[in-house]
């Protein structure tokens, strides 16, 4: 199938490579089908492109590549909802805010995206009672450099 995108042109994908977000993403519930677009040469980043809306795309990052102490537990209910059978079937990404450029990007660590890579399911989960921020700096050194420190 062809996925029309505003940023990448038309992308040909196999239907089985679509990720289904059964409830959509908070604020974007009308889009349920997405593809992951890899960033060439950098496996820590992806784009999450809606297959339903050409202009809906998110910049994602592997949180574990940038925040070594990042962790959270998936409830049994969430494991069932995503049909997860084992740790090898799960991938986690976080949405980045890159409006100020990548060097000043922030990551939403309170609402990770969890993917079942075997069954092509995805869900954004909201971490309750978390010490994480919705705007955690991806590159902390950039904050000090911007302030002249």
UniProtKB/TrEMBL annotation:
It is found in: Cytoplasm. Its main location: cytoplasm. GO terms for cellular component: cytoplasm. Coiled coil: none annotated. It holds the Pfam family FliW. GO terms for biological process: bacterial-type flagellum assembly; regulation of translation. Keywords: Bacterial flagellum biogenesis, Cell projection, Chaperone, Cilium, Cytoplasm, Flagellum, Translation regulation. Acts as an anti-CsrA protein, binds CsrA and prevents it from repressing translation of its target genes, one of which is flagellin. Binds to flagellin and participates in the assembly of the flagellum. NCBIfam families: PRK13285.1-1. Belongs to the FliW family. Interacts with translational regulator CsrA and flagellin(s). This is Flagellar assembly factor FliW. It comes from Cohnella ginsengisoli. The gene is fliW.
């Amino acid at each position: 199938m062809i996925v029309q995108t505003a940023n990448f042109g038309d992308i040909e994908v196999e239907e089985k490579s679509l990720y289904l977000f059964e409830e959509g993403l908070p604020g974007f519930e009308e889009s349920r089908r997405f593809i992951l677009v890899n960033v060439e040469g950098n496996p820590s980043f992806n784009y999450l492109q809606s297959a339903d809306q050409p202009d809906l795309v998110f910049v994602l990052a592997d949180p574990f590549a940038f925040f070594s102490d990042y962790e959270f537990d998936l409830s049994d209910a969430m494991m069932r909802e995503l049909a997860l059978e084992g740790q090898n079937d799960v991938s986690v990404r976080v949405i980045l805010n890159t409006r100020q450029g990548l060097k000043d990007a922030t990551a939403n660590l309170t609402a990770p995206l969890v993917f079942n890579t075997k069954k092509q399911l995805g869900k954004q989960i909201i971490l309750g009672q978390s010490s994480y921020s919705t705007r955690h700096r991806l590159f902390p050194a950039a904050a000090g450099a911007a302030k002249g420190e």
